[in-house]
Specification:
2 copies of one chain form a homodimer.
Chain A (H helix, E strand, L loop, with lengths): L1 H8 L6 H8 L9 E2 L5 E6 L6 E5 L11 E2 L1 E2 L4 E6 L5 E9 L2 E3 L5 E5 L2 E8 L16 E9 L4 E9 L12 E5 L8 H4 L3 H10 L7 E4 L36 H17 L9 E6 L1 H12 L6 E5 L20 H7 L2 E7 L5 H14 L4 E5 L5 H11 L9
Helix pairs in contact in A: 1-2
Chain lengths: 393, 393
């Protein structure tokens, strides 16, 4: 049956040799369908299975609170129609008789150190991250040599609409993903480019370059993706950084390799007043650590549901770089801390804000009704970006 | 067991809530390992399975001639070590008790209208597509509005090293993927950017912009990926183009929307002498059709293992645009036709070359010992690009 379908798929008769050669044993995907009533229909081909379920990841604050049973139909095609609990981006897997499988019909995203199926459930009340008919910036991949890691690294760079035709210099936001993700996450899951396009079209933010680098830095000879001692992908092994350790390889990459590359290859305002760093979860901890220890390089900071920061005390943390409140308030233009009310990290995140307030450090607090998830980080960026580089307004 | 491993994966204790929430039911991937003796080791987690196989796609000219049995080890981890038959990029799937699965440890590529595991087996004798320490061009994503399709489309654009710092105008190669692929294929599987970087470093080609668009154009209201009548992804439905039909939506996109966008957004030499079109398989057929019917726009053409061209007769095909040999030889700067000796399309491909030779149309023929596969298309681009835009040398 699958062979027959794939022969049809490739359409043109003259391509049938290719189709036949490839059809053997290929899993054929059904793209999940959003229905007019707000439900979603998913289908999955498993002719010999006895039990097939859609398993939301991040329960109970994911796609759905429980696993969703699929029903077997003709030709071994299982299906389910359900109403997602909540809008936003949610991971899921398909479980077939106890074995977790990637849904080949899904759009896959690099998360959990794996390609993982994701469903982006529209929020009918929000369109700040939608693709609209406005001028679009460009996403570029910047390759650069890294002696720290012994590898060529790749950064994703957003240049705002008009960059190519202009001769202006632009401020730069360094924007980091979370644990188990990569330099595509902020555009693939986060829609950072669309958020910036829309903010710029509404004149709510100043044009800026956004640099989204890969947040791991494994030593020379080690795989790009950190590997656990037992050989699986994960952050347990070398390069799976502890964000609290000053001088860690990612910090070295950022300070000695990435920033110089961006300032050389792009028209940047290459000073601390026009350079910000922000990140989500692990990227938030990276931002706190790197900004704290390099206030000569960064004048603004955003922490989006930061994870792995440990306790923060402005008087003592990071060798006391935050201890002089007057000096900090003069130097730091924007400090932004965000958390989700459904996030287990909420109290820890709020603690950073409270400790800054207590010390008299000017900062902006933002919370939204999300768990540890992309819908929250999208909102965080949408709130944070307009605060940046106010002197350019 | 998987929960335990994933808890380790995310490392930092403070992230354990996230790790625990996500670990439920997630499949954990092992990255395939290339061993020093030329073998590959793959692992796959399936504790309850009774038979697990690696199934090469495109047998017998793929990764391996037959399916490869995996052996069950501790903790439900199956493994196999084997020596790939041939270098180059090859798709495969994992078959678990009769069900085809995506290997989450693999790098996945958009092919067969699905994300499909691929293994890029190095050729110890070839390095023209390797990542080297040479100046790198930039890959950019250009969004553009398309009235033909009622969608915002995305083209991948390679700009050569030095483009940003220069004020020069550049010639443009439009380079198309094959059936079931997309605008990422030429960089993800084809390594087109690295091939160009290396050619330019060796001064074997002139700096050019390479535009890799999405080769399907579905009507307004239809999904971006063409869908078959039964709802699966495939080219059987609207927008699954027949490359031989002049006036088809993809041709309209290319001529009335894409070329004007590129000429507006990039510093191009916007004339036929400095514009080429090439493509592989379906993209080859698209190139033949579009160049044949728009010789006013294109001065060079490359057909890489073209599929779906149908019979070609220079005297009569495409309304006779190739009929006047003297005129064609004056106008067309480079015509390049390539095929693989193991490709079922070899005879059909060679027929185009032979018919041009017979008619006296100047053309370059190139064949290599490949099937219908990326290793051949990489070689085709590597041979073709140096022939282009000779007046700029």
């Amino acid at each position: 049956m699958q062979s027959k379908v794939l022969s049809l798929l490739l359409g043109c008769a003259c391509l049938s040799t290719l189709a036949l050669a490839r059809s053997a044993n290929a899993q054929v995907g059904y793209t999940p369908t959003f229905n007019a009533d707000g439900t979603v229909t998913m289908k999955f081909v498993a002719p010999n299975a006895t039990k097939v379920q859609i398993v939301p990841i991040n329960k109970p604050n994911g796609l759905f609170k429980t696993d969703i049973a699929m029903t077997k139909g003709d030709n071994g095609v299982w299906s389910a129609t359900f109403k997602p609990d909540r809008p936003g981006f949610h991971y899921y897997n398909i479980n077939v008789d106890g074995l977790s499988m990637i849904d080949p019909g899904a759009t896959l995203y690099w998360g959990l150190f794996n390609y993982t199926p994701g469903l982006d459930v529209p929020d009918p009340n929000l369109d700040f991250y939608s693709l609209k008919d406005v001028p679009h910036g460009t996403i570029r991949y910047q390759l650069y040599n890294s002696k720290v890691t012994g590898k060529t690294r790749r950064a994703t760079v957003y240049t705002p609409p008009g960059y190519d035709k202009s001769t202006d210099k632009y401020p730069v936001l360094y924007l980091q993903h979370g644990a188990s993700e990569n330099e595509d996450s902020w555009t693939h899951m986060g829609k950072a480019n669309l958020i910036m396009d829309n903010l710029l079209a509404d004149k709510k933010a100043v044009p800026m370059i956004v640099v989204m680098d890969y947040g791991y830095a494994t030593p020379p000879g080690q795989p790009v993706v950190p590997t656990t001692p037992d050989g699986r992908r994960g952050s347990g092994g070398p390069g799976g950084r502890n964000p609290n350790t000053p001088g860690n390889p990612f910090e070295q990459v950022m300070v000695t390799e990435l920033i110089p590359t961006i300032d050389r290859e792009f028209r940047t305002l290459a000073d601390r007043d026009h350079r910000a760093m922000a990140g989500l979860s692990m990227g938030g901890a990276e931002s706190l650590q790197i900004v704290s220890t390099h206030m000569d390089l960064f004048g603004s900071m955003g922490l989006f549901h930061p994870g792995g920061t440990g306790p923060f005390d402005p008087k003592t943390s990071f060798g006391g770089t935050w201890a002089n409140t007057e000096d900090v308030n003069k130097k730091m233009h924007t400090i932004f801390i965000a958390a989700g009310t459904l996030d287990n990290l909420y109290n820890q995140n709020k603690g950073i804000h409270t400790s800054m307030d207590t010390a008299g450090i000017k900062n902006t607090w933002f919370e939204s009704e999300e768990a540890h998830e992309w819908q929250g980080w999208r909102k965080d960026l949408h709130e944070f970006a307009p605060l940046l580089f106010a002197d350019k307004k």
